[in-house]
Amino acid sequence: MFTGIIEDIGIVQNITRKQEIIFLSIMAPKIKLEDSQIGASIAVDGVCLTVTARTASVFTANIMPETFRITSLARLKRGDKVNLERAVAVGGRFDGHFVLGHVDRTTSILRRYQDQTAQVLVFKIPVGLETQIVTKGSVAIDGISLTVIYADSRTFKVGLIPHSQQVTTLSNKTVGAYVNLETDVLAKYSVKQMRANQF
Prior knowledge:
The protein is mostly beta strands.
């Protein structure tokens, strides 16, 4: 489980592809990887991956076919920057919202504009997720815990404060760029329960 509070911006060192399987190596400049054992979880752009090997500053992970198909990680290239967060420690501070690292779908940036110090980004809501994204609710975009400023049936907006602009990759993504979207887990269960009660 994660909080959506990004710890580091990693740099993709190496990518090996075999059909829909990816072997990925990422440099983590700030994270102390000595604290992450083999088998530990690290969210890469919001995708929960398992550490399969590590040095003091680089870890490797395997991406399975489902992750290849559903997330933006299949688009990564050597040198790309990614948001990193280690799984939350038991008893640790929980500052964002419950983020599982289980990406629902990718979506794209439709528009971006400045609102004083905030950068506002407008995204398309993927088909089937309309009821899981609500105004003032929570979403994770590329692993970043964000509050939905506004949502209708087709689009939603989030805002990046200056701190988030500096410590995540999202402020540098252009219109049309694909990002990983994870809706609030509470919304998922609420929608399922409501549908079950209709029968």
